[in-house]
Amino acid sequence: MTALPIDEVLPQILAAVDAAGRAVIQAPPGAGKTTRVPLALLQSGDLDGRIILLEPRRVAARAAAERMAQTLGEAVGETVGYRIRGESKAGPATRIEVVTEGILTRMIQDAPDLPGVSAVIFDEFHERSLNADLGLALCLEVREALREDLVLIAMSATLDAAPVADLMGSAPIVTSEGRSYPVETRWRDRPAKLTRRDRIALTAETVEQVLTQEEGSVLVFLPGAGEIREVQGRLGGVSADIFPLYGALSFADQRRAIAPSSARRVVLATSIAETSLTIEGVRVVIDAGLARRARFDPRSGMSRLVTEPVTRAEADQRRGRAGRVEAGICYRLWSKGEEGALAAYPPAEIEATDLTALALELAVWGAETLPFLTPPPERALAEARDLLIRLGALDRQGRLTEHGRQMSGMPVHPRLAHMLIRGGPDALPLAALLSTRDPLRGVGAGRPPVDLSLRLATLRGARHADVANQAALGEARAEMRRLKRFARGASDLGPGATLSLAYPDRMALRRPGEAPRYHLSGGKGACVPDGDALAGQRMLVAADLSGEGAEPEIRLALTATEAELKAAHPDQLRWVELCLWSRRHRRIDARRRLMLGALILEDRGWPDATAEALAAAAMDGIRDLGLSCLGWTKPARLLQARIDWLRARGAAVPDMSNATLEETLEGWLAPFLAHIRTADDLARLDPLPALRGMLDWETAQTADRLAPERFVAPTGSRVAVDYSVDPPRIAIRLQELFGLDRHPTIGPENLPLLIDLLSPGQRVVQTTADLPGFWRSSYADVRKDMRGRYPRHPWPEDPTAADPTRRAKPRGT
Questions:
Q1: Judging by DSSP bridges, how do beta strands 217-221 and 265-269 pair with one another?
Q2: How far is CA 784 from the centre of its chain?
Q3: By three-state DSSP, how is residue 766 classified?
Q4: CB 1: neighbour CB atoms within 10 A?
Q5: pLDDT tens-digit readout, 698-748
Q6: Are the beta carbons of 419 and 427 closer than 8 angstroms?
Q7: Inter-axis angle of helices 414-422 and 378-391, to 10 degrees?
Q8: The pTM is what?
């Protein structure tokens, strides 16, 4: 058996497991950790049960099982086996079982004490897949509560080991230095921004250059299957075998790409080849510098695939593939200066993906959360739980229902699980199509048609010449066979309505206008590509959206009739009576609407709208137009000013400022709005009675005493007090104050009222806040001036001893 770098630290690993029952292993790609650690645990003789090795990808799981079985001189399925989606090679004698990560979750949910399992190893934990994070969190709870003897090991190539070790209860860290040969890095100077076409051309050009200048096989990293096919199409004349390698390929095609071969080859791979897999003979790596990730947007409730620059950790992983067997070369299709802007690590999947399946697993486990290395985002988790409530998996209190328990045991997204249980005969082919590659993608030029019924037709026998699509059809048919035992629905809803069971938030109603824009039942918007055959349909059910922009593009959909969708979702149907303020028409629009989720199926007038509804709409109108739209009278403004003046001086009176009145319309104005219909009605509404209603009797009495509307002069005249200025003031003819030897005061602090003393001709002759002082001083000058101008009016020498009057002296006196 060939020695591998990990062999040197196997005794340390076994000692850590013996002492602590858990360990974190750091070892670079190629160190041999994937195959040697499970075999070392088995051969130590300390474990009686099975050893479960988790791999993030199916191709890696198969390859790891085959290498370990080959090491033991056995066939897969004997001592070493594997279990992946839709395929299992394991038997009663199997001691090491390689599984993909979701299978471990199901094992724990079905039997939390993991009977017959002695150890669980998380390989390539640095990839931080959602299932790996969940699996480790569940295993930690199992170990703490049920299985103290359960051995847990996390293995990583690049992840910072300390946080993982802390999460695992201060698990020992064992580091293997690994073995790699020198790799020369060469950067490509190129324009700062490349189009997709330019990047494909640059990649193909670099492959052709390498094949003429270097020796050995070439591994090319590209973001996805589409780019792989495009580059492959440009390399038809090169002197090497070309192999694609991505997750959706058949196992036979994946095996051909990684199988040892004496022929020179070019492997065009996604990030699937970064870790776990060893491809013999690779000496040159070409890295296009991009990775494709799923991003979940909680605002839209949709996931989308985004193409992003690789992180430094991913670039280092890819570079290391060139030095596995001898000195190599890594071509990076970006400039050296760009590396400083790369992120250090990719985000954990739990931070950026749809959490619906996770939320369901947490409900099955009976926990709000678990000891995650990275906690799930609260908003995304809340969105996931809302969807599960809509699907009937959780009740309104967030508790698991029996329907949710059935869904959790199905190997598909909860949306599709719900459809398989409740849908009819169309549910099975739809679930299979939506779980595998699109069989029409790549057929002909341009984007594939939106109509999902065309895919259903291919599944029933329609043929296409494209080999990749024939493979996709094969995958969908195999998925149908795998899911057949889970299909339980018997109702015949029709394809569109059946699909709506999985996507109750994506029933789509066409908006008015020529553009193919749709309103979704979940409240968002979407559009169909111009020119697509479905662009004119009134109602659709969308299964796939681009997730980009305010109105994402619908990429897969089925037509449905209103009657079909009503029958499929009677719980979402409701009549809604509402009054809305129309900004455009400046009036209340009272409507009765039949709603399907957020879709308006019928819209009628509501002639007998309730007073409460009308008042609420009128308040919206006031907020739209502003408080000035009301018919403010002078008494109303005066009352507002008096109360605001008092409040500014600490009096216990309501806040009648414009801002507060607008914020609290419901509390003071709503009872006066029952008969409002239009902006003209608002303009005729005097708010004075409503403002008075804000004052109880005692407060009104206090306000009248401390801030009276009018000053009562010695003559009996009632003069309005102006509270729009500070201090408040009055204007009154001087003669009406004769005999008054104390200055009038106002407010809780007895502040002097400012008085504009008027001549008989209503002109201000003096402004004073000290009337006795005026009598003693300035009055004499005023008297001297005024006697000549107004001889018929009294101007006594001692005004404090004179009688107040509003009259002039009779003629002739």
A1: parallel
A2: 82
A3: strand
A4: 7
A5: 999 999 999 999 999 999 999 999 998 889 999 999 999 999 999 999 998
A6: yes
A7: 0
A8: 0.76
